[in-house]
Design brief:
Elements lengths: L2 H5 L4 E7 L7 H9 L4 E6 L6 H6 L4 E5 L9 H13 L5 E4 L4 E3 L2 H10 L5 E12 L3 E5 L7 E8 L22 H4 L6 E9 L8 H11 L7 H5 L10 E5 L8 H8 L8
Parallel strand pairs: 1-2, 1-4, 2-3, 6-9
Antiparallel strand pairs: 4-8, 5-9, 6-7, 6-8, 7-10
C-alpha cells in the first residue's frame, strides 16, 4: 500500500465470513482484495482446514473465530457478529464480500468512493460465473441467475441509526445493514462487477446443492431456483466474457481450483 493511500481519509475494509475455504478461492480472493482495500476483516466460522491459522499470518488481514451463531444455524446472527468485528477496525467504508467472489475492477470501486465520500451506498453488478477456461468466463443468465445490483459497498455513518444492523433472519438475510438496504434506491453504481465463482467447480455442486436444500427447502429461495443448480449445461443460458485485467495474474490459481475434483466443499 503506497503512502498516498495511507494518508487518505477513506478507510475501506473488506468484510467476509469463511469456513474451510483454504483449498478453494480464499488465497486469491484475499490477494485481490488487498490490491485496493486497506484491510480485510474476516470471521472464521469453525474451519478445520487451517483457514484461521493462514488468515492470522497474513498482513492487513484480521481474523477471529465466530461467536455462538454459526452461518447455517442462523445467518443473520453470524453476519451481525461479522459486522461488529469489522466495525472494530474503524472503517469509513465496508465492502461485504464472500470468499469465492472477485471484484472485476478494484480501482473503479475505489475511485467511486473517492469521488463522493458522503454517498451512503453503491452497487456492484453481481454476475454468476458458471464455467471458465483459459480465454473466457461463462456467466449464467437464465432464471434467478441473471445479473443484479448488489448494495454491498457502503459508508459507515458517523451516527449509526438503530437499524444499522443485519436483518435477524435465519437465511438470506442480506449482507448489508437494514439502514443501508433502505437506501438502495439512492445507491450509485460503481461501474464494475462482482464475479461469483462459487458454482464454477462442477464437482462441488451436488454437495452444495444438498446443503442448501437441507437448510432452505424453499423457505428463503424459490425451490425452482434451487433445483436449477443441478441443471445440465444444455438447459442453462450462458454469456461469454473475457477475464478482467485485474484477475489475469490470478487466473492460473483460479483455474486450478475450478478444475479440481477433490477438496474442501463450502
Amino acid at each position: 500500500m503506497d503512502r498516498e493511500r495511507e494518508d487518505r481519509r477513506v478507510r475501506l475494509i473488506a468484510s467476509l465470513i469463511v469456513k474451510d475455504e483454504l483449498g478453494r478461492y480464499l488465497k486469491p480472493c484475499v490477494e485481490s482484495l488487498l490490491a485496493f482495500c486497506d484491510e480485510v476483516a474476516m470471521v472464521d466460522d469453525g474451519s478445520t482446514d487451517g483457514t484461521h491459522g493462514w488468515a492470522f499470518s497474513q498482513e492487513r488481514v484480521h481474523c477471529c473465530k465466530t461467536g455462538k451463531a454459526h452461518f447455517f444455524e442462523h445467518e443473520g446472527r453470524a453476519r451481525q457478529f461479522l459486522l461488529e468485528w469489522t466495525l472494530a477496525r474503524e472503517p469509513t467504508h465496508i465492502l461485504a464480500i464472500d470468499a469465492d467472489e472477485f471484484i472485476a475492477d478494484g480501482r473503479a470501486l475505489r475511485a467511486a468512493i473517492d469521488m463522493d465520500e458522503e454517498q451512503p451506498v453503491w452497487t456492484l453488478e453481481m454476475d454468476e460465473v458458471w464455467k471458465a477456461d483459459e480465454r473466457n468466463l461463462w456467466l449464467r443468465r437464465d432464471g434467478g441467475w441473471r445479473p443484479h445490483a448488489a448494495p454491498i459497498l457502503y459508508a459507515v455513518p458517523a451516527k449509526r441509526p438503530a437499524n444499522f444492523r443485519i436483518q435477524d433472519k435465519a437465511l438470506a438475510c442480506g449482507r448489508e445493514p437494514m439502514s443501508i438496504r433502505a437506501q438502495f434506491r439512492h445507491a450509485l453504481k460503481t461501474g464494475t462487477e462482482i464475479l461469483h465463482f462459487g458454482w464454477t467447480n462442477a464437482s462441488e455442486r451436488q454437495a452444495r446443492y444438498d446443503r442448501y436444500v437441507e437448510h432452505d427447502s424453499g423457505q428463503f429461495h424459490q425451490k425452482r431456483h434451487l433445483d436449477s443448480i443441478m441443471y445440465d449445461d444444455r438447459r442453462v443460458g450462458l454469456t461469454r466474457r473475457s477475464w478482467p485485467a485485474a484477475l489475469l495474474d490470478r487466473k492460473a490459481a483460479l483455474l486450478e481450483r475450478i478444475n479440481r475434483t477433490e477438496g474442501s466443499i463450502t
